[in-house]
TrEMBL record:
Protein name, UniProt field: Glycolate oxidase
Cofactor names: FAD
Keywords, alphabetical: FAD, Flavoprotein, Oxidoreductase
InterPro entries reported for this sequence: FAD-bd_oxidored_4_C (IPR004113), FAD-bd_PCMH (IPR016166), FAD-bd_PCMH-like_sf (IPR036318), FAD-bd_PCMH_sub2 (IPR016169), FAD-linked_Oxase-like_C (IPR016164), FAD-linked_OxidoTrans_Type4 (IPR051914), Oxid_FAD_bind_N (IPR006094), Vanillyl_alc_oxidase_C-sub2 (IPR016171)
PROSITE patterns assigned to the protein according to its UniProt record, in alphabetical order: FAD_PCMH
A GO term for molecular function: FAD binding
Organism: Jannaschia faecimaris
Length: 476
């Protein structure tokens, strides 16, 4: 592949930049050889690629601050990066930018079981947070399917969720405080170690801000005692809409499962071939999990199964062992990977009111016919967070563009029924130009002003989140 051309002015600036970075970082923390920068040319949205000017891997908040100060003085854009698993192009570089990766910031700084908190550097992976406390009977609740790889930094950037967020909430509900380095190098502490903190709720602003406001280097997270027990039940149906209606009825009934996950036939088949989870061969499958003591589990499952029966499931099967439960979840967590083995796909991320699930699933089916592109659905149904996977052929000219057009129609449908463009993957580059469909000019202006305050030169994570026309007008 031919590398994009970088103009001579930028190349001269790059030489000066590397010289200055070398004053504050060791040699092995600066990646600037053109071939090596390719490792950072994209995230998990691989349809878009662009190698950065350079990448840096600092080891402390002080080093992050020094890097940002230099880039600020030299007017060089910076793209914060965790593990690069964003499905929205959130960590995609521009040719004139520096990738600031936190992969080497992995220390646990404090664990306090009395106050149920863990403080750590944000390069640590999501799963390794639970890994640090599980021997003592605790866990960290937000569980993105990418949790083996994704970093707490990116979870905060995208306000990530996961299967069990129906009960425990998403990242913002489990985040207590952060250390944020601003673009000019200033280090600020936001939030604290408790549920509430003095001053304005800036933590709520930072969580989910997609690297637009600063670089988060440390975080204080809430940890929880492991539940006594948990059990999933599999429910298979003849069609997607009936499964959607069943979810809506479970939520309406007021029982609170920890998770309600949905998969349709293409995803069930791909996942079963990949992970051998023991899923029934059906049009639609729900995994509903409840937690508690044995008695509590039985009580909740009885209510839930009664609702399921009223929708005539083709199969209703409670897990009978820990091994069976683990296989059911391994299947679900492998679903995206399993689909990726058989096809190129674009993973959408819209959220809708749960009562609208049958309507939107029908709409997706109609759009699939209109565009001639197959769709696999696998998503967190309990909180209405949909992930249609549109299948396309990356080698077929025009297929990606068709897929993008269809994706935009699906997301607009989510907004039309009272939902929003993103549940947990963020806006990134993928949905930035659809923001006009979600926000009126006044709403958008309020967000732009927040960006102005934190990053007046608009250097952080360029070309993301805000529509390009809006950004261009802002920067003049
Ligand atoms: C197979 C697969 C399954 C997935 N499943 C889920 C799921 O169930 N739930 C879910 O929510 N997501 C899921 N994702 C999406 C992705 O894993 C999440 O968005 C995750 O939080 C990204 O983390 P990361 O460390 O890879 O961040 P990156 O991709 O590196 O970055 C994500 C965003 O955060 C910003 N950012 C990164 N580091 C910092 C920092 N230090 N300070 C400020 N901003 C920063 C970036 O600029 C970018 O905008 C999945 C992805 C894949 C590939």
């Amino acid at each position: 592949m031919e590398m994009p051309k970088v103009d001579p002015f930028t190349l001269a600036k790059k030489d000066r930049l590397i010289a200055r970075l070398s004053e504050v970082l060791p040699e092995d923390a600066i990646i600037h050889a053109v071939e090596e920068t390719r490792a950072y040319e994209c995230d998990a949205l691989t349809a878009y690629k662009c190698p950065p000017l350079a990448a840096v891997l600092p080891r402390s908040t002080l080093e992050v601050s020094a890097v940002l100060k230099i880039c600020h003085e030299m007017d060089i854009p910076v793209v914060p990066r965790g593990s690069g698993t964003s499905l929205a192009g959130g960590a995609l570089p521009t040719a004139d930018s520096v990738i600031l990766g936190v992969a080497r910031l992995t220390d646990v700084l404090e664990v306090d079981y009395d106050d149920r908190i863990i403080r750590l550097q944000t390069g640590r992976t999501n799963l390794s947070v639970t890994g640090a406390v599980e021997a003592d009977g605790f866990f960290y609740a937000p569980d993105p399917s990418s949790q083996l790889a994704c970093a707490i930094a990116g979870n905060i950037g995208m306000n990530s969720g996961g299967a069990h967020c129906l009960k425990y909430g998403v990242t913002t509900n489990n985040l207590l405080g952060v250390t944020l380095v601003q673009m000019d190098g200033t280090v600020v502490e936001i939030g604290g170690a408790h549920m509430d903190s003095a001053g304005m709720d800036l933590l709520g602003v930072v969580c989910g801000s997609e690297g637009q406001l600063g670089v988060v280097t440390e975080a204080t997270l809430r940890i929880l005692p492991k539940p006594e027990g948990a059990r999933p039940v599999l429910m298979a149906f003849d069609d997607n809409e009936t499964a959607g209606a069943c979810v809506a009825d479970i939520i309406k009934a007021g029982v609170l499962p920890v998770a309600i996950e949905f998969m349709d036939r293409p995803v069930i088949r791909a996942t079963e071939a990949f992970a051998k989870a023991g899923y029934p061969d059906a049009e639609a499958l729900l995994i509903v999990e409840v937690e508690g003591s044995e008695d509590e589990i039985d009580e909740q499952l009885e209510v839930i199964e009664k609702i399921a029966r009223s929708h005539n499931p083709v199969e209703l099967r409670r897990s009978t062992s820990e091994a069976e439960s683990a296989a059911i979840w391994l299947g679900r967590k492998s679903a995206f990977g399993a689909m990726g083995q058989i096809n190129d796909y674009m993973c959408l991320d819209g959220t809708i009111p749960v009562s609208e699930l049958p309507v939107v699933l029908r709409g997706i089916g109609e759009l699939s016919k209109k565009y001639g592109l197959d769709v696999g659905n696998v998503f967190h149904a309990g909180d209405g967070n949909m992930h249609p996977l549109i299948l396309f052929d990356a080698n077929k000219p025009g297929d990606l563009e068709l897929c993008e057009e269809m994706g935009a129609e699906i997301l607009k449908l989510c907004v039309e029924v009272g939902g929003c463009l993103t549940g947990e993957h963020g806006v990134g580059v993928e949905k930035r130009d659809l923001m006009h469909h979600q926000f009126n000019p006044g709403d958008m202006e309020a967000q732009l002003r927040i960006k102005d305050v934190f990053d007046p030169k608009w250097l952080l994570n360029p070309a993301k989140v805000f529509p390009l026309d809006v950004t261009a007008a802002r920067r003049g």
